[in-house]
User: Fold these one by one.
Assistant:
Number 1:
Amino acid sequence: MAEEVILRFDEVTFEYVEKRPLLDEASFSIHSGAKITLMGQNGAGKSTIFKLITGELQATKGKVFITNNALVGTAQQMIAKEDLSLTLEEYFGKAFVTVPGNIKSQISKVMNAVNLEVPFDRIVGELSGGQQARVLLAYALIQNPDILLLDEPTNNLDKAGIDHLIGFLLTYDKTVLVISHDADFLNCFTEGVIYLDFFTKKIETYVGDYYSVVEEIQKRIEREIKKNAQLEKEILSNKEKVNFFAHKGGKMRKLASKLQDEIEEMEENKVDVRREDKTIREFEIPAQQIVGNIVTIKAVKIIKNHEPLLQNVEIILRQKDRLLITGPNGIGKSTLLRALVNNQEGTEIFPGTRVGYYSQDFATLDYEQTVFESLESVLTEGTDIQEMRSIAAGFLITGDLMNNKIKQLSEGQKGLLSFTRLVLMKPGLLVLDEPTNHINFRHIPVIAEAINNYDGALIVISHMPDFVSKIKFTKELDLGRF
């Protein structure tokens, strides 16, 4: 007996702006219990598909069918800013129209499923990025959904967290759709891929694990390029014959007409080869020149058993020093970076240092600003508007995005905007908290090379081993050793 189709898109077109579709006649179906990846470039419409499934957005044309009103639960990329001041119990209460009497029991059950132990009266905003990532999944699970939507679920998770999530998904018997740029994670459980083509706005579906699908797509592109090259050769040959026979008259002219028809048919048979996802241009982060101690850290706050403990350390960073901060989720890594950039007790930054801070929650971005205003606000002497636009274009922040408010950008686009700002700032100190979150995997080697070539002082937190391995660090601070 065939598995039941639980979700179906029937020629769905969606437009934020009239006559500029983000999706064009998208059609696909998903069977109950399937584990499917949504794949595509930043801004291709992956999160939009999630919103069409949840009903947050409505299709411009076509229909989205959910069988028997199946319940949909979404684990978002980030906790909404307005929810950061809530306690865990208050936050989970928002998942219900009427808060059930056994809410604490239900919270315990889903927190156990995501391998997280935190007091229910803890403020959500006080949790680490990795702990918040687990809470987001638990929030979706507490709704007992038939269709689980996961948007970048491995962001901020350490290896233990990712391993637990993979184990959970392998045994989870409900339908799962996941957006992620973590190829190894996806390959562990994916059984099919829905690909969103950024250029044509069309959707393609593939069966198989993630790496098999990526290989299949690449082979198809190579076949299409080869076929087009052969057709182009034949078209050129026929055009030369047409030019020769057209002036001969009689039967020759008829032959020229026939050849012209063949040319038109071959032009129609040429395949619209899918353009590969664009990769950002190679770039350089200019460094403000500073002589002396740029960063001094004398004390760090470690979180043990949900209680802060102050530990004395002695870390000094000068120009070209690179510090990697490590430790498990919840130990206090991001807290240390926030303390540093806010000049809190125990840390010191040399006066006058321009600090380029990449916050994992994009706290440095004003969501109400336009992209243009955000970039203009960090311009330094010697960079004009034209150069600013050129640098932004290298990060795929093109002219059509400049007047958009930052809140309208995808999370991946916010990440690329943040890197554009770092280049324009020319900082003396670069502080990067999970800088690969939300970023298309094609961009990551380019970003790693730019960071490795940066000449200022550098501090990095990252749970992506492949990214970390590409940067030559001079110092490491493991908060887990205290």
Number 2:
Amino acid sequence: MFHDYEKRIDFFVGYPVESPILENLFSEFAGLSEDHMKQINVGIIGFGTVGAGTYEVLTTNREIITNRVGARVVVRRIADLDIETDRGVPEKPDPEVFTTNAMDVILDPEIDVVVELMGGLDKAREFILKAMESGKHVITANKALLAEFGWEIYREAERCGVTLAFEASVGGGIPIIGALKTGLSGNRIQSCMGILNGTSNYILTKMARENLSFETAVEAAVALGFAEDPPTLDVDGTDAAHKLAIMMSIAFGGAIDFDQVFREGIVAITPDDIRFAREFGYHIKLLAIAKDLGNKLEARVHPVMIPKNHILANVHEAFNAIFLEGDFVGPTLYYGLGAGRKPTGSAVVSDIISLARDLVAEKRGMVPPLGHVHPSETAISIQPMDELITSYYFRVSALDTPGVLSTISGILAQKGISIYSVIQKGRDRKGSVPIVMLTHEARESEVREAIRLIDDLDVVTDKTVVIRVEGNNL
């Protein structure tokens, strides 16, 4: 039928644009194309912050999305345990769309794509696997599930011949998954450093700008809705480690044992540490770091002192940033809001659009879940943290007595740790002073043993704070 119209248009070439004959023809053709336009039906499981954001993007930008897909994308069903609360979306869903039973979405024969946005592990995993078995394509933002059970889910998608997409699982609105799968796919990724948790970054920003304690900064983050109460998975490094594990699976093409990703939080950081870091020329950030060491990888999340002039040192508030280096592309930076209803909803919709385009073209997604047609079946080897070699910051609280600094220096020297710089001034409390040091590069195992010996000294009054230093030549 479309070919007939093409012939009729060719026949009328030469008629003036305002010709009634052409106007009638184009009007008839436009109506026909709209009537015959394919419809992609979406089912959403979980209508909380991200689910509502996804629905808002799909409805607010309906015309743009239709033009970019060449089909109408329609939310056919929404499943949530709470279907009464107003989610504040400008265009309210029809009440008939809602259900409290996720299986109504999964087993609906008219639904093409299931979008899992409920979070959690067990139920989400069950629903995703069931959706795949039912022949549904799946989109998820569930970073914890993918980090801990991803390999099973990736293989099940391949077995069932369906697409699995998860752009929103890392970086909120930052399109980092697409960049790794396609944009940088010709490169060997050499290193990754990322601020992947906006809550921790906001807390550290408040501490630095307003000289707040950790506890007070957390209260401010909770009050503004930037953090859960308590924000345990954010401040202990787990959330960032989940995201790092997903990125590493794509970048290096294999399974990651999440338990092998080292993580340490920001709970022990004080305003004094932030102030001393500044004196040394650094800012403190919670960084997720991965490096290709050839036969194994570094994979770690912890507070880091990074030079003030490094681009990541100047990412503040709740923003995320990911700094990647490829062997051919060199350094690249991805920056934006890492969480929130609209940015994360935008990322989910990007996956829906990509998948819908494939369905319109009647083809299976060209990009496998991890961006590798044959990913490694064995877990990628991760370097034990004890083998890390980097520079360190120490803050030792000790009695203000003669010979303390020389005693501490002697222990460090026994363990082969060379001091680069020392600050010793001001009293924390009566009889106790902070001794602050930067070291040259040292091995983590030797540092841990040295700190154990230092903390056992009678003159040391509190546990030593240790922060690793990145991006320097000390």
Number 3:
Amino acid sequence: MRIDLLKTTPDRAGRYWVTFSDGTRMALYRQTVEDFCLYSGKELSDDEMTALREAAGNMSARMRAVRIVSAASVSKRDLEQRLVRKGEDPTQAKEAVRWMSDLDLLDDAKVAEQVVRRCVAKGYGPARAKQALYEKQVPKEYWEDALADYPDMTDKIEEFLRSKLGNDYDDREVKRAVDALLRRGHSYGSVRKALNQLRLDTEEFLEE
């Protein structure tokens, strides 16, 4: 296979586009271009083309993994699945996750802590934090430590109730506010405690 054209300048994603004699195009990162000593007019054997495709796939998965991790906190399992959904080869996606882990760029324990901190900052209860950990596909062995120091959210719950109810409200509005708090991951007990402190009627909201 002959290289008909190798772009000498990268695109916005940092890739160099190569056009082959059969009309196919391949996006390569600089390291792969240099590793294979590529240039316009170079002839590649079948074995060299196979090696080039594999190297290109591995590098693509790694660079995409870097971009994903740079934009958001992700668990290893979440990152691997995101890579596959973006079109990366499953084997190369797994290798990219291993590569990131070897560089200490992935840490499920730290991701668990970050997820819980964000939930606390948003005023969510422990149940919603557990849901977030599940959604981020953080392994359960990291949940207990991350949730161990979950703060008392009574003040947050009271703040939420005040913002929703104001000074003039009826029982239906209180019920809607309570339901919203339960959806935010707070327990009946925590909500009832806040209602008591605000001196709101709690008879309809018995603890489970």
